[in-house]
């Protein structure tokens, strides 16, 4: 029996072949090392993320998240829901907060869920995986499992928007959250505490609708990492990871820059520090290779 057990909401982007499938694979490896069991919510659905704001209405958007919570309450009784995707975590947590403060919305949602034989109790805690790492496992225990310290690796911890506002991580500053820096230091790497773009928005879905604005934001995020001497950017957010990594060629063409900055997940850092190889850490899924991290993984 695992030391820690949670109801797991993977989210769309973490699926096989999707944009952040390497997040899913690296989290699985990380959980093996940390003795964490993730019980996938059966028949989970999309949280509606940004597209849910495009005219579908509040009730349909809230009901999508409510269905996931209700399924978790039915099948993974008593287990906190844990998401690895920042958007999934935010959407689910927002829905729960709304239901707590709006009895009519809760009643209407349960009326819709009843058509599928479900009922929302809304008593399940909604958590991001980084909350589990910080609050349940803790830095000391994480540090005790390090077999291959990330020595010489300078990491810019890029938190982004969705794990920072409006809810944030308990005990962390909204302007300067330090949990990624603390995690990097715990793993034997060198966190860049002067990285001033750690909560800068990457533009989110603007990457499609208004790419000029989004790429200007991304340019600043990457440029700041270079200015601070980073070897790699690390993030907890799949959309941040995708936007900051995949648009670097377009940004280089527009700004005349020569960016080639790897963007990885916190889980990949943990995997490598715990002695797992580059494949286990899903470093083979990077578009821009994290060569220094791969070199450490190969030691």
Task: Give the gist of this structure.
With 299 residues, this protein is of the alpha/beta class.
Write up what this structure looks like.
The protein has 299 residues and is of the alpha/beta class. It folds into 2 domains: 4-129, Glutathione S-transferase Yfyf (Class Pi), Chain A, domain 2 (Up-down Bundle), CATH 1.20.1050; 147-297, 3-Layer(aba) Sandwich (Rossmann fold). The chain is 45% helix and 10% strand. The protein is built from 13 helices and 8 strands. It has helices spanning 21-34, 58-75, 86-101, 103-114, 129-137, 139-144, 179-186, 206-209, 211-227, 238-246, 248-255, 266-273, 291-297; strands at 4-9, 36-40, 81-83, 126-128, 154-157, 190-191, 232-235, 263-265. The strands form 2 sheets. A 4-stranded parallel beta sheet has the order 2-1-3-4, sandwiched between helices. It has a 4-stranded parallel beta sheet with strand order 6-5-7-8, with helices on both faces. Helix 3 crosses helix 4 (103-114). The radius of gyration is 19 Å and the shape is globular. The mean pLDDT is 94.
